[in-house]
Amino acid sequence: MKISAVVVTFNRKKLLLECLNALRNQTYPLDAIFIIDGPSTDGTPEALLECGYIKELPPKKGNWSWETKNVIYSPINNKPIKVYYVRLYKDVGGSGGFYEGVKRAYEEGYNWIWLMDDDAEPREDALEKLIRYMNLPGVIALAPTVIRPTGEISKPHRGILCFKKIFPMIQIPLDESKYKSNQPVQIDFVSFVGPLIKRDAIKIVGFPKKEFFIHHDDVEYSIRLRTVGKIYLIPDSVIIHKENIKKTSLIKKRFLGKTIYRIPYNKLWKTYYGTRNLTYLGRIYSKSKFKFYFKLLKRWAVSVGAIILFDDHKIKRIQFITSAYLDGLRGKFDNEKPKRILYGGKKE
Questions:
Q1: What CATH number should be reported for the domain whose range is 3-241?
Q2: How far apart are CA 97 and CA 87, in angstroms?
Q3: What is the similarity comment for this entry (predicted)?
Q4: pLDDT in tens, 93-103
């Protein structure tokens, strides 16, 4: 049995090094780590070189990707751990990064693949506690508990899928009481913060959907995984997620005595993918198409009304949000489109 980790990173070298250190120090040592860098501009390759994860720097420019291999050693038992560093030369988002990482780990023959972003830090015994349950009947994925740095459970990362109520979230977070169990808990949905996925399942369902770019790619993949087996939460296996949720970059507006937060125009492009991808999933999987289209129309109308009331660049914003819904309904995945609509193709 060979186990590899896949870490997707972009411009967070400090967090990446903390994640890699946690992986290196697992009490059940990994066989390999795939680092998918897509493509960082903050000195990530230099940091990896300095810390001994890679032995050479990637070229400054390339057509698609550049890969180098190295070997580090587990401080637990001095076991060699292969390190594959993949430098992408095009921004393909988190979805594209996970696609690339899972594909490469699968093609290298690893039996189980452990997925996470660079802002995840598994506790040293996280993997050891997961592998105890690899032989559960029908198991195709095992998921640790996700906690915030403050210690509380981050519930949105594990849950049950609800195809009756697509908006605003297709997944219902798992009740906190489930985390108190000493036994595995079967779930429908696992985010890409720490799932350990079986090779046999990947062979059938394929790789994460790279076209999503960001947002809801883990939902889509969970739906596919559930068609071939069972996903289990392992409550006593823990991974820390250092997600940085800030409202400081948002614009505050007052309306009827309430504070309304609005997204600045130069940051707006990132919101397109979540709306498009959730709409796409709803069109395919919603149990009641009437309710789905009714709620979609209602959400669109509310969004347009808020733009008219609160925002600048009103025409562009309305065109932008309308396009996100329509592209989801049509299944169109042009990931350069949001910037073309908002900024004429110029990067903000």
A1: 3.90.550.60
A2: 10
A3: Belongs to the glycosyltransferase 2 family.
A4: 999 999 999 99
